[in-house]
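The instructor's notes for this session suggest beginning with a concrete chain rather than abstract definitions. Hand out the sequence below and ask the class to guess, before any prediction is shown, which regions might be ordered.
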Amino acid sequence: MTSVRTEHQPQTSDVEPAFEHGLEQTVLPGRGLTLCAPTRRDLYQNRLADCEGDPAELFQINARWRRGAFDELPDVTEQQALRKWFHSSGRVFSTTGSDTGPMVPLRDVPAPLGPALLALADAGSSSGLLFAADIIVLTEGWAHLLPSGQRCLVKTRTFSDQQRTDLVDAVVPDARDAFAAALSYIAIVASPQRLQVTHGPRGYRNALMEVGMLVGNVGNLMATHRMRPSVTVDFIDTTVDRTLDLDGVERFAAALVALNPDHDENRVQND
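After discussion, reveal the predicted structure:
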């Protein structure tokens, strides 16, 4: 009889520890399992076992179209008429007496900010993206509304040094230096109710999608007009909304943009 001798050699694995840890865990941990100090990885792996779920996921559930809901949806013609009225009549301002009134003609705003805002107002009108969102420009001690297609800023409230400090402190730490050095700011304010009037709960989701497209356009337009934009969507909402005099529900800050003139071209010419 032949005997077989088996030697146990130390096993080495090229598999990352994080992957091995994942293989050791059950897909659905028992309901009695409680992690005292869960890591981000643990939270991700165990999310399917959460009895309550994430409250943010209710947004997707509540915004779904359901059978029969299209019967209450206005046709495209009516939707376009509503947007046209908003841009042509609902947000029309006169610059008469602008020297003492709340209107600030964009031609009086120094370059490069003035031309950049003019291009943004035109783009907002042609694209329709300034329907579910407003552009608030924070500069020269004032918070201004930038109406789509208009050639002026509208003063809405003062923007003090203390409010500027509060705004800078409210943004995520990685963006704080850029905001502290900025001369002007743009706040993109979402107003989902304007779409919820026609689309119900789905309008909230559609509004956020339009806001996302607007944020991208703002960054590109500012950069092409010799501005250096720094965009953030992470900030203390209550502080920013209070600074901008927003209720935080029907109108709330969705993104902030810090603006500084881009002097790269001047440096090249001077060299």
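Then share the key points. The radius of gyration is 26 Å. The CA atoms of residues 181 and 260 lie 8 Å apart.
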